[in-house]
Model the fold of this input.
Amino acid sequence: MARKRKIDMVILGLLSHENLTGYDIKKRIDGAINFFWKGSFGNIYPALKDMEQTGLLTKKEESAGGREKITYHITDEGKKVLKNWLREEQASNELKYETLLKLFFGGADNKKISVHNIEIFEEQIKEDLKVLKSYCKALENAPENKDHLYFYLTASFGVETYEAYLKWSTKAKRMLQ
Amino acid sequence: MARKRKIDMVILGLLSHENLTGYDIKKRIDGAINFFWKGSFGNIYPALKDMEQTGLLTKKEESAGGREKITYHITDEGKKVLKNWLREEQASNELKYETLLKLFFGGADNKKISVHNIEIFEEQIKEDLKVLKSYCKALENAPENKDHLYFYLTASFGVETYEAYLKWSTKAKRMLQ
DNA sequence: TTTTGATATATCATTTTGATATATAATAAC
DNA sequence: GTTATTATATATCAAAATGATATATCAAAA
Done:
């Protein structure tokens, strides 16, 4: 058996803040969560259907005036499941860094290829770091909401690590040349 | 269609250094590669079968004396595929950090839970950091092999980022208390 | 001598990924 | 004012990854 479906927890977490449609959930995941978790319609919609059937969510179909739209709400049972997960001791943290994979096997080709790949990585990280820093700044200046501390801490994780990536990139390029 | 199978590149990369069995490949992935890529028998064996059929690998069955054992060898075509991948511009780098996911939704429960989860994370990272540092030290003192620079750089990436994780952990715990 | 652990291949259900299909509403371009 | 494009919205599918399990041999330890 593959491990317990994690997208369920992402959905329950998001719905514990606000009622959302599947499409909204995708947008939220693509936002602040994006750099440490991913989601797709292909696993969001089936998960919503399952959790509605097992009573973790309820749905509310709206089509009056506009187009069809299914908004999901978390139930007390859903909140309980979310809390239980938060309190579980084990958590799987995994990197899948194709840049590192390529570098590890860099000896199979010219050094220049590896340097170039690090440069591509660096550019991407610099882009993403800008976004993360703007998240942090926005959250620093608006601590009214009690959840903002948690959002700030995750964004700050990104900033710290991305800065470490850039520091490493400089060193790695120097050592290759 | 799901994206191009990445385990193929891991296998080709490993086989570009030495001939291995599926079981050996799993061990290699669980070793130095483990912290930035994962693999399982469930995707290694099917990939080996496929790549043997498409001519990227050849196999050599040994059962004389001992038990059955299938050693795989990379072909020139396989080496070409590996090089082409190294030269591809795009690379997907992804984190899946359940610790951060839990922290992001930490507001749904007591602060103590979040602090505890960070502590669990910290302990794991400290363990892994020891291993990464020993890799680095071993590779620093043995630069005879031209591939060692590449292995060193990937391990060094781990050290840099894991140290950033620990720095962040201290800060995050302080801010939660 | 038995039991444990390492070696070795293989398969399976569940989950994730990434793409695509379909259709409506809002906005921009011409 | 019509057309083209983009955003909203749900849903499904093939391919790939995950993690567990089944099976069996061999070496080492208890």
About this structure: The CA atoms of residues 56 and 78 of chain A lie 4 Å apart. Residues 1-7, 38-43, 46, 66-68 of chain A lie near DNA strand C (CB under 10 Å from a C1'). Residues 7-86 of chain A form a domain with the Arc Repressor Mutant, subunit A fold (CATH 1.10.10.10).
